[in-house]
C-alpha cells in the first residue's frame, strides 16, 4: 500500500499527528492481545483508503539535541521510500534554518509533499502562519493539536493524490514470499541458494509502490515469487545502519507478500529489531515462518539446543506462537528445501476457507462444552459462526451478548480453530457479534 512519511525537525508535533492518524485503527487492530506496539509505524485509513504511516521522529534518539545530520538522513529516507510526505512546521517558532534546509531537500526530490503548519490554535496564529508563504509555496494546511482541527482536509488531499497502479501483475495468483531480517543474517545467501542455476524472470517496476524486485521460482514442485527489496538497499546505502531504514524496507516488502520468512542469526538470538519485523508481519496478517540461520556455526549441539532456542523466541513474541521455527544453514543449504516447503504450507493455511457447515459442526459443540463465563448472571450463547472472505483467516461468532466475551475466551476460540483446522504460521482474527 501507499506509505505516508511525516518529517520535520524535533518538537513540531510529528508524533501527535501520527498518533491521531493511528487512533481509530489501532483500537481495532491491536485488540488482539500480545501485539507489540511499534510506535513509529502503523496502518491508517481515510475514507476507506488504507495507507501506512511512518513517524520519522520516532527514530530520534534524543529530541533535545538531535544532530542536523540525523534529521537530513531521515528526510532522505522518507524521500527514498515514501509515496507522500507530510512536512510539519510549527507556528510558534516560525520558519527556522532547519525547516528551510528540509524544505530544500523535499523540493528537489520531486515527491508529493504536503506542508502542514502545526500549533495554529487561534485566529491570530492563523495570520502568523502566513509567514510560511515565504517558502514560495502555494498552499499549506494548518493544524491544531489542541483543537484537533485540520486533519480532515489534509487527508482528503493526501488520499486523493495516491497514484493508481494501472499495470498488469505478471505474477497474479502466485504465492509471494519475502525474506526479512536484520542485516547480515543471511538473506542474500538464502535467496541465492534458492535461485541457484535458475533462469529467473526479474521485474523491477520502478516508480510505483510495488518497486520491489520479484523473482519467479519454479522448482521442486513449488511455484512462487520471491519479493526482494535489493534495489532499495542500493538507494539508501548511506543509512544502512539505521533501524528506521530496515523497518521501512521490511514494511514495503512485507506488504507486497503473502508469507514472510523471518531470518534470525543463531549466534545472536532474537532481538528487538526481529520483534519489529515480526510485529509488522503480524499486523499485516501475513503468514510467518521463522528461520534460525547459521546453525552450522552453533557448536556443541545437544538434544535440547533447538528446543531451548525455539522456546526462547516464543517466550518473547507474545500470544501468537503457532509459528514454524526451523534451524537452517543458508551457506551449506542444510534444510533450506524444508524451509520452502514450510513457507508454502503456511501460504496454504492462510488461503484456507472453512465451509460454514463444517465450521458450525465442529465449533458449536466446542462452545457448548465450554461456554464463555456468565457475567452478572447472564449466560452467553454462541449460535452461529462464519469465516469471512478476507485474504487472511477471520471468523465471526454470533452470540447474544458479544460485549461480555472477554479476551481469554477469544483466545480460547482462536486456539480451538487452530487445533481443529490447522492455521500454523497464520495470524487469525476472531470477532464476536450480535446476530
Ligand atoms: P544479508 O545482509 O541478510 O543479506 O546477509 P548475507 O546473506 O549477506 O550474509 C552475511 C554473511 O553471513 C555472509 O558472510 C554470509 O556468507 C554469512 N552467512 C550467511 N548464511 C550463513 C550460514 O548459514 N552459515 C554461515 N556460517 N554463514 C552464513
TrEMBL record:
What Pfam families does the annotation carry?
KH_dom-like (PF14714), MMR_HSR1 (PF01926)
SUPFAM superfamilies xrefs: P-loop containing nucleoside triphosphate hydrolases (SSF52540)
| Entry binding sites for GTP 2 | 181-188, 228-232, 293-296
List this protein's GO terms for biological process. Answer: ribosome biogenesis
Residues that, per the record, bind GTP 1: 8-15, 55-59, 118-121
What PROSITE patterns does the record point to? G_ENGA (PS51712)
A single GO molecular function term of this UniProt record: GTP binding
Report the residue ranges that make up the EngA-type G domain in this protein. Answer: 2-166, 175-351
Gene3D superfamilies hit by this protein: 3.30.300.20, P-loop containing nucleotide triphosphate hydrolases
In terms of PANTHER family, this protein maps to:
GTPASE DER
NCBIfam families tied to this protein = GTPase_EngA, small_GTP
| Subunit-level organization | Associates with the 50S ribosomal subunit.
Protein task: GTPase that plays an essential role in the late steps of ribosome biogenesis.
Q: Please report which protein family the annotation says this sequence is part of.
A: Belongs to the TRAFAC class TrmE-Era-EngA-EngB-Septin-like GTPase superfamily. EngA (Der) GTPase family.
Q: What is this protein called?
A: GTPase Der
Q: What is the lineage of its organism?
A: Bacteria, Pseudomonadati, Bacteroidota, Flavobacteriia, Flavobacteriales
Amino acid at each position: 500500500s501507499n506509505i505516508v512519511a511525516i518529517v520535520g525537525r524535533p518538537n513540531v508535533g510529528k508524533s501527535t499527528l501520527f498518533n491521531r492518524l493511528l487512533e481509530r485503527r489501532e483500537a481495532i487492530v491491536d485488540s488482539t492481545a500480545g501485539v507489540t506496539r511499534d510506535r513509529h509505524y502503523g496502518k491508517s485509513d481515510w475514507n476507506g483508503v488504507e495507507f501506512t504511516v511512518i513517524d520519522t521522529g520516532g527514530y530520534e534518539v534524543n529530541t533535545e539535541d538531535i544532530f542536523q545530520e540525523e534529521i537530513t538522513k531521515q528526510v532522505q529516507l522518507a524521500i527514498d521510500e515514501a509515496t507522500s510526505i507530510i512536512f510539519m512546521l510549527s507556528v510558534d517558532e516560525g520558519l527556522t534554518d532547519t525547516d528551510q534546509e528540509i524544505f530544500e531537500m523535499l523540493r528537489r526530490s520531486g515527491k508529493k509533499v504536503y506542508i502542514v503548519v502545526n500549533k495554529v490554535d487561534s485566529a491570530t496564529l492563523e495570520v502568523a502562519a502566513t509567514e510560511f508563504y515565504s517558502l514560495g509555496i502555494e498552499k499549506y494546511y494548518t493544524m491544531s493539536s489542541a483543537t484537533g482541527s485540520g486533519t480532515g482536509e489534509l487527508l482528503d488531499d493526501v488520499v486523493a493524490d495516491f497514484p493508481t497502479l494501472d499495470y498488469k501483475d505478471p505474477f497474479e495468483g502466485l504465492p509471494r514470499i519475502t525474506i526479512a531480517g536484520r542485516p547480515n543474517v543471511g538473506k542474500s545467501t538464502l535467496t541465492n541458494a534458492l535461485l541457484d542455476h535458475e533462469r529467473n524472470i526479474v521485474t523491477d517496476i520502478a516508480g510505483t509502490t510495488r518497486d520491489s524486485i520479484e523473482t519467479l521460482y519454479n522448482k521442486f514442485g513449488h511455484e512462487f515469487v520471491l519479493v526482494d527489496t535489493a534495489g532499495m538497499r542500493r538507494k539508501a546505502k548511506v543509512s544502512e545502519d539505521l533501524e528506521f531504514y530496515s523497518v521501512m524496507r521490511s514494511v514495503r516488502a512485507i506488504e507486497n507478500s503473502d508469507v514472510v520468512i523471518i531470518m534470525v542469526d543463531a549466534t545472536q538470538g532474537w532481538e528487538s529489531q526481529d520483534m519489529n519485523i515480526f510485529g509488522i508481519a503480524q499486523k499485516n496478517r501475513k503468514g510467518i515462518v521463522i528461520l534460525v540461520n547459521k546453525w552450522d556455526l552453533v557448536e556443541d549441539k545437544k538434544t535440547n539446543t533447538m528446543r531451548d532456542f525455539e522456546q526462547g523466541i516464543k517466550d518473547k513474541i507474545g500470544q501468537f506462537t503457532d509459528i514454524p521455527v526451523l534451524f537452517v544453514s543458508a551457506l551449506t543449504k542444510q534444510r533450506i528445501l524444508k524451509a520452502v516447503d514450510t513457507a508454502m504450507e503456511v501460504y496454504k493455511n492462510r488461503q484456507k476457507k472453512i465451509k460454514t457447515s463444517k465450521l458450525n459442526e465442529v465449533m458449536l459443540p466446542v462452545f457448548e462444552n465450554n461456554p464463555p463465563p456468565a457475567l452478572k448472571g447472564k449466560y452467553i450463547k454462541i449460535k452461529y459462526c462464519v469465516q469471512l472472505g478476507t485474504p487472511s483467516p477471520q471468523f465471526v461468532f454470533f452470540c447474544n451478548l458479544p460485549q461480555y466475551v472477554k479476551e481469554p475466551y477469544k483466545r480460547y476460540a482462536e486456539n480451538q480453530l487452530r487445533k481443529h483446522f490447522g492455521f500454523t504460521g497464520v495470524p487469525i482474527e476472531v470477532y464476536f457479534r450480535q446476530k
